[in-house]
Amino acid sequence: MIDLKLLRTLQALQQTGTLVAAAEQLCLTQSALSHQLKEAESSLGTTLYLRKSQPVSFSAQGQLLLDLAARVLPLVAQTEAQLKRKSLSGIRLAVECHACFHWLMPAVKAFGLIEPNCPIEFSAEIEHNALDALLSDELDLVLTTDQRDLQGVFFEALFEMQLCLGVSTDHPLAQQAFVVAQQLRQETLLGYPLPLERQDLYRYVFAPAGLEAKFRTVAQSSQILQLIAAGQGVALLPRWLMEPYRAQGLLAVLPIGEQGLFRTMYAACRQGQQEATPLRQLLEQISQHQPS
Q1: Which of 99, 191, 273, 288 has the fewest CB atoms within 10 Å, i.e. is most exposed?
Q2: Is 80 exceeded by the pLDDT of residue 129?
Q3: For residues 87 and 174, what is the distance between their CA atoms, to the nearest angstrom?
Q4: Residue 82, pLDDT above cutoff 70
Q5: 272-287 pLDDT, tens digit each
Q6: What residues form DSSP beta bridges with 143?
Q7: What is the distance between the alpha carbons of residues 131 and 269, in angstroms, rounded to a whole number?
Q8: Rounded distance, CA 134 to CA 112, Å?
Q9: 28-64 pLDDT tens trace
Q10: Does this model's pTM top 0.85?
């Protein structure tokens, strides 16, 4: 029997390229994922993917199911969203930007005055596959700078923010007009507890320059700012987050490169649910309270 679980599993395997990465995306162990696929192959009487291929290659039958998944899963997500649109009694929200809470809370408070019967539930697992949780109906809204080509997910651009390097005021780079990757090769880079490949400073500065990074993870934005001011490292953060500290003379804020580094903040929801009244109201409040 072909079920949605199998289609989602095969799609995750296609997107990630390996059993290990697919299992992580689906929040399963690798052995559980392998067992699931073996059971499906036994039930269908066919091989779905080629073992020991890197990245994973699919058999003709597996590709047939992938084509089905590409057609069916977006329709399922859209129908589920339409069914829930009028009965949305709460918003499950995840934020893939640790610094966002500094400006998000006023928007949430304003939304509560407009929609008192629609509470917002925050997911604490902001660093783990929020967009995949959105597709599996564990979340209703994700705030993220990571726009991806995901079937069944609607992205709406909210605002653009500049990411800058924060250094202590007595740092050798503090008086520079801007910094480039090569100037940071000996620095301790402070970042949130995310995998290296999701660290903005690594993704957009170090990796393109082919440099290795020496990272120190820190849980809270306030701690990162204090460590910068104390000369314990440097960090890539939104300019608006560091501006109060710069105004007090506690740190220096430097653009990345002559043109600067900018990222767009997106709101992501399931396709078909973007016009649901509570979500629309919340996004309007977010737009009104966005950082300047």
Answers
A1: 288
A2: no
A3: 53
A4: no
A5: 888 778 888 999 999 8
A6: 95, 267
A7: 8
A8: 22
A9: 888 888 888 888 888 888 888 888 778 888 999 989 9
A10: no
3-class SS letters over the chain: CCCHHHHHHHHHHHHHCCHHHHHHHCCCCHHHHHHHHHHHHHHHCCCCEECCCCCCEECHHHHHHHHHHHHHHHHHHHHHHHHHHCCCCCEEEEECCHHHHHHHHHHHHHHHHHCCCCCEEECCCCCCCHHHHHHCCCCCEEEECCCCCCCCEEEEEEEEEEEEEEEECCCCCCCCCCECHHHHCCCEEEECCCCHHHCHHHHHHHHHHCCCCEEEECCCHHHHHHHHHCCCCEEEEEHHHHHHHHHCCCEEEEEECCCCEEEEEEEEEECCCCCCHHHHHHHHHHHHCCCC
Encoded amino acid at 32, one letter: A
Contacting residues for 254 by C-beta, under 8 A, at least 6 apart: 164, 165, 166, 167, 173, 174, 176, 177, 178, 179
What sign has the CA pseudo-torsion 106, 107, 108, 114? positive
In this structure, the number of other CB atoms found within 10 A of the CB of residue 209 comes to 12
Residue position matching structure tokens 């290659």 = 57
Q: Which two tokens stand for residue 201?
A: 């400073």
Match 């649910």 to its residue by tokens. Answer: 273
In total, the chain counts a number of residues equal to: 292
